[in-house]
Structures are given as C-alpha cells and as structure tokens.
Amino acid sequence: MQTRAVSIRISPSELEAFAAQTMRSVGIRDEDARLAAQILVTTDSWGVHTHGTRQLRPLLRNFPVERLRADAVAEVVREGGAWALIDGHHGLPFVAAVRAMDMAIARAKAVGVGYVSVMNTSHFGAAGYYATRAALAGMIGVAICNTDPQMAIPGARGKVLGTNPIAYAIPHGDRPIFFDIATSAVAANKVIRAKNLGQPIPEGWLVDGDGNPTTDPSSFPETGALLPMALHKGYGFALLVETLAGVMTGAAMARQQPSWVVGVPGNPPGYANQGQVFIAIDASMMLSPSEFDERVDWLADYIHEVPKAAGSERTFLPGEMEWDRRERALRDGIELPPDVVESLFGLAEDVGISFPFAANSE
User: Fold this and answer.
1) What is the pLDDT of residues 278-291, one digit of tens each?
2) Mean of the pLDDT values across residues 66-72?
3) Model's pTM, two decimal places?
4) What is the chain's mean pLDDT, rounded?
5) Cα atoms found within 13 Å of the Cα of residue 278, Cβ hemisphere only
C-alpha cells in the first residue's frame, strides 16, 4: 500500500523536472521555473531540506491569491558604479535573487566589489545558494535578507525582528567554503517542521507568549518567538541585516513585514516586501589569483590538521558536510525525508498533476 509518510530516494534531475512542472502549472515561465527548481534541488542535495523543495508548496500558494506574480520581470531602478537596486515586482523570488547576484559579480569584475539589493520580493530559499554562486565564479560572496518578525530580542516579549539570515562563501575549487545561518538560534522552518512532526525542540530555541523558555513548538508561530543566536550577538547581527536589507532598499521593515506564508493568522493581505542584498568581492583585484588560492588552501589545511578532540576524527570547513552530501546525492540520489515527500505529494494535488514518485514509496 502506498503512503505519503515515507522517505524516498530520487535523482536530482527527476526532482528538478517535477518541481519545474509544478511551477509552470501556475503560469511561471519555463526558464524561471527551471532556474528555481535547480536552486531548490541543490539545497535538498546539501541535506538542507527545510529550505529545499519542501518550500515550494507554500510558496506557490502565493500566486493564486496574487501575493506573487507569475508574469513579473525584475528591473533595475537605481544604480551607480559598484551598486544597483532591483525592484522584483513581486515575481518569483529566486529569479530576482540570481539576477542580483550575477549583477554583483559582473560589477565586482569591473571595479572589485559589487553590491546589489532587491526590494518587492519574497522568500528566496537558502541564502547560501547565492553566496556560493559568487564563489563558484571566483568571488567572495555574501547574501542577506530581512524577514517578517519571528524573533525576540533581549528585554522584550514577543516577536520583534525577523530571523534575517546571513550567508557567505569563499572560493575553494569546486567546493567553496560556505556558511549560511539565521540570526535566530535556529531557522523558523526547523521549529515548524518539528511542530508538524509532533516533536519537541531543544532548549534555547523558543520562548512562549509570555517570554518563558519552552521546548514545545505546538503554538509557534501563532504565539511565542525564536531566541536570537548567542542572545545579544544574534540581535546585533539581525539589526545590521534589517538596516542593509530593509532601511537601505525601501523594503518593509520589522513589524511592517508580513509573512510570505499564505494563511498565517493576522497576516495582512497583499504582497510581501522583503529586502535582500547580494555582495561579490573580486579578491584578484587585491592580490593575484594564485596567491589568494594558496592562502585559502593554507587556511583550509590548517583547519583540517589541527589536533582533534577526544572522539573526533575530522574537523570540517563550513559547508564541507553539505558538499559531501551533495556528492552522495549526485551519485546515489537524494533521500527525501517523509515530511518533504508529504509536502510534494500535496503540492502535486494543489496544482492538479500526478505525483510521479509514489511507486518509490511502497
């Protein structure tokens, strides 16, 4: 008997084709659908399932209610030598984000640094994808985004700032060093995933509606709030992101920012308006490419060769575990956990197509 509540193994190409098909079914252009599918499946292949194809079902629900526009085309509205501001016009967020990072890379090649921001956009998945896009082009990459409030700050009760992620990537062959984190103790999607699975969460992730620590995610996001990572330190970084991605772009800020998720209680109608910033730095403008590579290699070797703690066999560079998982996924297929399979099965029903991988779940 077939059931949704199982894991399945699937090739990245098959998953990309399915994801692109679901997007085309709501009117998204084929080129845009294929790009977004590649981004989401890359994220799944890293093992970051909270931000992979599982995100597609809630994102596509924005199109029928006109919170996102399938026909929108992002455009540059202001620019200077090293910088530009893009209006995403509430189109598919991945497309505007890639255009912004590619523009930052091009400007960095010309003048050393490129800084491109986006307004009138929405959830773009894993920030690390865009940072690594720069690193694979030989640039140090940074990607940040402001989001709707989900996080408390020291001394306050309730949601004050978004999880406001920060990602960076450093060129290192075909496996860039990369780091992608929320400025909260954990990404909101991880708490919601635990809630959907009926699982408790670790201490230090969440406070309840009265500001008391809790390991019960059942009332989030309706009440309660995420804690900042490292408390005041995470708060400080979140405020920097809010300044660059919110204040500087003209995007909505803090409590002005609605959730991108359709159906959240109290969520106002109309478009989300997240702000995003993409930075590329061409290190070859400052030192020779060979010297840069040698110095990064030295640093990587240093991290790998440090004395190991008891019980530890290996020290990892940021992103190294994700690249290891991706190599296995490209060789053996991506193993999608049950909650992702459930989301994709529901997505197929939402858009009126068959779920082609059910046979794998017998």
Assistant:
1) 999 999 999 999 99
2) 94
3) 0.94
4) 94
5) 33
27 within a domain of the structure (yes/no): no
Query: Does residue 346 belong to any structural domain of this protein?
Result: no
* Exposure letters 215-232 (e unless 16+ CB within 10 A, then b): eebeebbeebbbbbbeee
Given pLDDT bands bounded at 50, 70 and 90, which one contains residue 4?
Answer: low
d(CA 232, CA 14) in angstroms, rounded, equals: 44
Bridge partners of 214, per DSSP, are 206
Asked whether the predicted pLDDT for residue 82 surpasses 50, the reply is yes
> Does 94 reside within a domain?
no
Residue 210 lies in a domain: yes
Q: How many domains is the chain built from?
A: 1
Q: How many other CB atoms are there within 10 angstroms of residue 246's CB atom? A: 27
Are the beta carbons of 133 and 168 closer than 8 angstroms? no
Instruction: Determine the structural domain holding residue 200 and report its residue range.
Output: 194-227
Mean pLDDT for the stretch of residues 256-273: 86
